[in-house]
Amino acid sequence: MIQENIKNIRAQLPENVQLVCVSKFHSEESIMQAYNAGVRDFGESRAQELLKKVVNLPKDIRWHFIGALQSNKIRQIAPFIYMIQSIENEKLLQETDRQAEKNSRKINVLLEVHIADEEQKHGFAENEIIEFFEKKKWQNFLHINFCGLMGMATFTSDNEKIRKEFSKIKEIFDKIKNIFPNPTFATLSIGMSDDFPIAVEQGSGMVRIGSKIFGNRIKN
Ligand SMILES: *Cc1c(COP(=O)(O)O)cnc(C)c1O
Fold first, then answer.
1. Alpha-carbon distance 90 to 88, whole Å?
2. Residues with Cβ < 8 Å from 174, sequence gap 6 or more?
3. Alpha carbon separation from 1 to 23, 25, 30, 57 (Å, rounded)
């Protein structure tokens, strides 16, 4: 089932769009099925769960952190995390930079932009993120690779609304690429199970898909 689902999703993605399988709340067995279908990028949203999974699963998995972050969680995942996609403010960026330095490495980061009109979604406001690059604030973070932006659209069945939100973040992404011409800044992570076709249409470079691959999550 999982392997078929992956095949199905891949068939809908242009070649230049990366797939991150969101495995939060799913078992190591399920992850191994996706792994055996060739997937190496997995997304998790809880540090404790991720720390447990990392121990048993293959070492060539690239783990993406996509959940709400606190400083103590950054410390725990800093030694091995491939990319943190959910950096929603400068304070978390500072802590990530500090922990990366402690581990003598650089950490790949996507900055999360708040595009939905839902209070519970997180991220930098448009003016904050533009200012961050205009004022060259990135210069303060020597152990961070700024790889791009991440965004989540409003949870709604109104496709036009979702389209507008994705189009907005694409516009912000292109604007930043002009003021920060660093080749590492190349990834726009938008699109989940229910809205990834719209995200792809609007220029997504990375989709994060969970339930359409692993089935519904049983939360505990
Ligand atoms: C859970 C989650 C996803 C995957 O959601 P699905 O709808 O199951 O595909 C993607 N991105 C983020 C940030 C998430 O928290």
1. 7
2. none
3. 15, 17, 10, 20
Residue nearest to atom 12 of ligand 1 (CA): 66
From 42, 192, 214, the mutation candidate for ligand 1 (largest count of ligand atoms within 8 A of CB) is 192
pLDDT, mean of each 10-residue run, the chain (220 residues): 97 97 97 98 97 97 96 95 97 98 98 88 94 97 98 96 98 97 96 98 98 83
Residue position matching structure tokens 């519970």: 120
Q: Name the CATH superfamily for 2-214.
A: Alanine racemase (3.20.20.10)
Contacts for 216 with CB less than 8 Å, ≥ 6 apart = none
Enclosing H/E stretch for 144: strand 144-151
Question: 104 CA distance to ligand 1 centroid (A)?
Answer: 30
